[in-house]
Every structure is written in structure tokens, then in C-alpha cells.
Amino acid sequence: MDNLVVGRFRWYVSPEEYPDMPQLVLHMVSQVIGMQEVDQQKMMEFILMVKKCYRNNPYHNFEHAFNVTHCMFNILQRNRDIFIDLEYKSLLISALCHDLDHSGFTNNFLQLTDDTLAQLYDESPLENHHYRTAMLILSICPIYPNMSQEMYKELSTEMKEAILATDLASYFKFRIKLMQLIQENQLDWSNNRHRTLCKAIIMTGCDLSGSCKPFLVAKNICENICKEFYNQGDLEKQMGLVPLSLMDREKSQNVPEDQVQFLTVVVLPCVELLKSILPNTEDLFLLATSLRETWQEIIQLKGHKSWRQDDSVLAVH
Ligand SMILES: [Zn+2]
């Protein structure tokens, strides 16, 4: 395993390396957590069971979980002095588990169709399900055999906060709070509430890191998201509803504009915030900035006026 390659944010697993993903996860675990307190056999079983519990969706699949874990690995490795032992143990595993058993539909759709998950959980039905599934697998494969009951409880709380934070609806709330703390120069890593906000933004940053890759990689990821969204859009049409533009396959010519808007409104503010709390994550910001420039060039080449992007910038400020 070449640490120099995997240790870069821009790295992305290639199709030839897909069969190696479980082994690569084990490598990342051994680097971040260390193997002294880990049952290696159980950890391997855990990783394989997690892999099995990801469905074969175009986007929300094990490859996405792996990519998010890789981004988390890089953030944790660059900031060895910031986190405590339990956080290394929870954040990397949360990244791996954060979309377990994802059905390929959004929370809105689950609520709209009164899906069982929406009946079970009032808020963030998907993320609650991912967390519950993670805890179920952990109970079957106890990867930390020497962990006290009390510590295990803390681990489970950390994982719940981390996985629930990947609901973008929560991200917008956390972002406002964290931005305020930074603007007032009040951010204090020793304050637990502040720390939780930082970890939530880190989880979102990792989840969105598919937009922090070189253009051809990011374009491929974007096509997979579109495939998943169009499936939902088709069902919405069958139900007599009007899907969002980015879920409507007949509006696929809007993809570059939609990407610029998503990068401007969601991704860039997140990785910029991440850069201000952890300056050594700057590459994520630079990669997302360059990706937006490429999409903008494509819009200009098509002769489209990128008015939607200007709109978004106005809306953000
Ligand atoms: Zn995700």
C-alpha cells in the first residue's frame, strides 16, 4: 500500500482496485486506530459485513463509503494532535458506516411515500437507519474486545452524532452555528459543544469529498448520483408529482449549472469552513474550487449564461 498516494485528498480508488477496498480499509484502520486494541479477525469480518450491507445503488454503495472513509483517514492522519483515542475509533468507523443499507431514495421521498423508515423516525430517517445498522453489525462483530461498557456507550453516542450529522438538513444548521463561533473568535476545541460541531462539519466534508476530486473522477461520481436521482424522479412522475430539476432525466442538460450551484451553495462553504478549523485540509477547498471553474467553463462553452450561479452567490451572502 503506497501511503504517499492514499495520503492525498485527490486520490480515488480505480475500478481495478475495487477488490482491494476491504483490505485498504483495514490498512486505514491500522494507521489511524492502531491494531493493539482491535481484534483483527473481527475487524476484517466487520468490514466485509459492512460491505455486504451496502446495496448495489449507482451512488450510495460501498465505493462511496470507502471514498468517505479515505477522506476521513486523511483528515485524522493530518491532525493527530487534535482528537482523542475514542474519536479516532468512532470517526473512521462512522465514515465507513454512514450510509449503510441506503435505499437509493432521499429522506424527502421516504417521508412523501410514508416509507417504514419515515414511520420509525421523525427526523433523518435514513441516517437513523444507517446508525442502527452500524450498531447491529458492531454487536455481531465486536471489533474493540477490551472496551469497557461505559466506553462502548460513549462510542455509540459519538457514532450516532457523526452519522446523523451527514443529513444535509442538519449540516445547514451546524454550519451557521460554527460560522458564528469562528466570526466571534470563540471557537474552543476543549468545549464539547464546539467540538461536536467541528466533528459534524468534518463528517459532511468527507461525505461531499466526491466533489473534491479531479474533474474526470468528479464527473463520473456526478453521473452516478444522477442515475440514482433519475430513478427517484421517474417514480415521482409515475406518482403524478413534479420532480426537482436535478432528478428529472429530461432536464439532464442542466447538469453543469446544477453542479455549479451545488458546489457554490453546499460544498464550497463546507470545505472553506473545514479549512478554517483545520488548515491542512485546504486541498479539499482548492480541488472543489477548481472543479467549479471547470463546470463554469463547460457552461460557457455551451453558450449558456450561468445566471443561476450568480443567483446562488447572492443568496449565500
Ligand atoms: Zn454519504
From TrEMBL:
Listed InterPro entries: HD/PDEase_dom (IPR003607), PDEase (IPR023088), PDEase_catalytic_dom (IPR002073), PDEase_catalytic_dom_sf (IPR036971), PDEase_CS (IPR023174)
PROSITE patterns according to UniProt: PDEASE_I_1 (PS00126), PDEASE_I_2 (PS51845)
BP-aspect Gene Ontology terms: signal transduction
Keyword Metal-binding: yes
Positions annotated to bind Zn(2+) 1: H64, H98, D99, D207
PANTHER family in the cross-refs: CYCLIC NUCLEOTIDE PHOSPHODIESTERASE
Name of the molecule in the record: PDEase domain-containing protein
Organism: Aromia moschata
